[in-house]
């Protein structure tokens, strides 16, 4: 059986900006995958190509063994994008019916309304909705065709805490039913809480791919840096709590899983150091550590 999603050697540029740079990615049926990355990482561009909205400059994309455009028209993919207005003056219920009519075998209306938590606002006009309610209506549209793959670009942006919780609870019910889900997010916590697998993008490339626990372990680390003051950096990578060491221009950066143990060992070992700094590892740096650890 074909995979749910397969990208190979996918490249997409906007003029001189290479938004997606040689991405290979396979997602199996039934997986729930988070696409995690900072602004401009290339997540939306990847998603738009998966949905057939953009054509890659190079490489191939298949969704359930078909071209993205065919997968969309046959109702295999449901998408929730970041933006897009609604037809004014229509009610939530009317728009959902309109959307169902586009698909060969839509989900029953009551099921859509319950899954998107819209039952109480069916008669409300869509131009009078709050940001979070609008997101839930977009989610209902994504579900309407009863798709096998749900692709969600930052689905919980603009939702308050209670709506987020209700949204993810509803998603869990859908994935228990066997649907494949790919969602983009900026938040490691959200990726870890909900996804079986977290794919990290930065600068148009996939820089890490692992379980939420693996990614969190590295992202929770710290960096200890100091001037070597003429001493050599040899042996620092082997200090307690250090996962990797980098020496540049007389300064060393130690990525640490336990920075307290590292600093203690530095002091007790009589290492010379100046301008000591301890910082929370930035996500991007933490992810780079993860990828290089995966290559060892
Ligand atoms: N229509 C466009 N024209 C020119 N450059 C674009 C366009 N869309 C995206 N880009 C650029 O391509 C790169 C990738 O953008 P993309 O929107 O795919 O990232 P993203 O990870 O989804 O970011 P965000 O989390 O902010 O949505 C960025 O450098 C962005 O500025």
Automatic annotation (TrEMBL):
The keyword Transport applies. It is a peripheral membrane protein. One of its GO terms (cellular component) is plasma membrane. Its main location: membrane. GO terms for molecular function: ATP binding; ATP hydrolysis activity. Pfam families: ABC_tran. The keyword Mitochondrion does not apply. SUPFAM superfamilies: P-loop containing nucleoside triphosphate hydrolases (SSF52540). Residues 5-228 form the ABC transporter domain. CDD domains: ABC_DR_subfamily_A (cd03230). PANTHER family: ABC TRANSPORTER ATP-BINDING PROTEIN. This is ABC-2 type transport system ATP-binding protein.
